[in-house]
Design goal:
By secondary structure, the protein is α+β, with helices and mostly antiparallel strands. About 30% of the residues lie in helices and about 15% in strands. It has a domain of about 60 residues: Ribosomal Protein S8, Chain: A, domain 1, CATH 3.30.1370. The longest helix has 12 residues.
Length: about 100
Amino acid sequence: MIDIEGSEFDLLLNEKIFEKFSNSTILIEIHNWVDNFEEKYTALLRNSFIHHIVEVIKRVERPTLHLEELRDFTDDNRLLLISERRPCVMRFLKLTPLHLYAL
């Protein structure tokens, strides 16, 4: 799992890293506020496609209505309790080794 606050591009822009981890499933949190994001993201995807199948992990909302302890909280306060304080909607990728799809 890679969650290094934008430095994932520094690590993963070297295509040889994907070769080293070609037998590993990789989860990446993508931080889109880095300089030259589009260029870096495109390069990351291009490098990863050599050894991995890339899937975007879909965001799911975390429900709170089933939590009895939070029934008397306002909507805003319930949502604040489950907030991760992310600056925007984050993108997560799952990279699965290509050879697992060849079976």
